[in-house]
Amino acid sequence: MKEPLIRMEGVSFDYRLNSEEVVRVLRDVSLDIYPGEYVAIIGHNGSGKSTLAKHFNGILKPTEGNVYVAGFNTKDDRYRREIRRRVGMVFQHPDNQIVATIVEDDVAFGLENIGVPPREMRKRIDAALEAVGMSSYRNRPPHHLSGGQKQRVAIAGVLAMEPRCLVLDEATSMLDAHGRREILQVLRRLHQRGMTIIAVSHHMSEAAEADRVLVIEAGRIAMEGPPREIFQRQELLRRLQLDIPVATRLAGRIHERVPDFQPDLIHPREIVDEVVRIAGKKGAAG
Amino acid sequence: MAREFELTRNITVGQYLPTGSFVHRLDPRIKLLACGILILAIAFCNSYGGNLIVLAFSCLLFRLSRIPLRYGLSGVKPAIPFIVILAVLQLLFYGDIASGGRVYLEYGLIVITSDSLRLVIVSALRFIEIIFVSSVLTLSTSTTQLTHGMESLLKPLGYLKFPVHEFSLIMTIALRFVPTFAMEMEKMIKAQASRGAEFGTGSWWQIFRRTKEMLPIIVPLFRVAMERAEDLILAMEARCYTPGGTRSRFRTYQTTFRDGLTLLFILCFSLLLWMYPFPY
């Protein structure tokens, strides 16, 4: 097995309210994330999923336990830059992470911070904007862009730094359906090229895109596995106040009426395939 | 009615009009420097003749940068009340100080002389000229270029431990968030107005009333600004920003022969304005 890119060992995190009160947000979380994986982290509001995400690049440091990114312990400040170059992060608000007044300059911001020479910068910025499909907007001011476009610029700003892993902390929650689709498309493409992706979300249809789903509840990992398995355990999900994707719910309903119909579908296109399969069989029988 | 709610449309700070003219292509540092020198010269020029020449020259600048003159005039419009107030005050109370020339009117404390009249007219002209010149600068230079130019020009201050880069970053971020906050404010005004709050009902002289009307907007706006700032810090840190760290630069500017020539010309022009004894 490959070396994990991110390794968490017994991580607990306390959020200090004031000098006396402390809230434990994460409790003894251990997990490994391997290069090239697409991991979705889901959980309802206040489950600790965002706090967990902020441990992946050392923005937050564990109260107990250790986090290693490519072998560097996030507690060691000497490696801060090394860690953040490897694990890029995109946040929730599209507006609050763009620094410059022109798209291109914003993508350059991270590169300037890590001291990339200007000639190399040009190449990397072009590649990053190309990867998110924003090349034709390079000279636009950010406030003329839609939410989805701004979020794509934010992703480009991270991509230009050539990280090995992209963490999206609820990056689609402020977007409309169209913007969300744009981002998911970009993520799918990046994943195909070998980028490790960790997507924190409460949209179940996004979790269906992943190879592996982690369900967080009260600061612990409550469930873990491929999305198809996770979404079959509907009782448990409901107890955790989580929904299942529309496709899975629909497949379940049809399965009750037509026992031949597969219940464990998670993508709309699978429903279509299944309907075609059954209709074809009926046609052949009749 | 709806127009009071549309703030984003009225924002002209850093309005940039790319026409690709000669002026647009100049090095931003040179432009900033030239603009500064010219404004200084205008401030010291107090003859009718000199000011008319500068006025003609600033109109020529609009021509050169292929920007319609109405952009300059729209910059003058909001300044008209100030120009008028200044003119009235100077006309009424400067007779004692600028007491040279013929006396036109003497009534108690109020003295109007040909010199004080000259001061009034020249001040108004200067005001307009400075607005014109700086409009050409901001209309022909993008905000990024402006802040980079400023940073470059301030670089010598770095030796005195002045945080030059941080200063320019603050400017960039401030400019970046102007439209964002305008949008935010628009939303708040609409939300408050839909619940019965009144905006802009007082006449313009009811300053206190109008200020009070803005309070329910200012307070939440500050709160939102704080929130955004916190998010922004996280996002900047996640992209390896370290205050005071060494950075490389994406945009570099090259000063060409043309830039040098422009600066030389502005310098000579300014010296001429300052030194030449205009007869009027």
One letter per element, helices H and strands E, the order of chain B comes to HHHHHEEHHHHH
User: How much strand of chain B?
Assistant: under 5%
Number of strands of chain B: 2
Number of domains of chain A: 2
Mean pLDDT of chain A: 91
Q: Main beta sheet of chain B: strand number and arrangement?
A: 2 strands, antiparallel
Task: Give the N-to-C terminal Cα separation of chain A.
Answer: 51 Å
Q: Strand share of the residues of chain A?
A: 15-25%
CATH topology description of the largest domain in chain A: Rossmann fold
Radius of gyration of chain A: 21 Å
- Helix percentage of chain B: 55-70%
From the spread of the alpha carbons, the general shape of chain A counts as globular
Find the CATH superfamily of the largest domain in chain A: P-loop containing nucleotide triphosphate hydrolases
Could you list the spans of chain B in which at least 5 consecutive residues all have pLDDT below 50? none
The succession of helices and strands of chain A, N to C, reads EEEHEEHEHHHEHEHEEHHHH
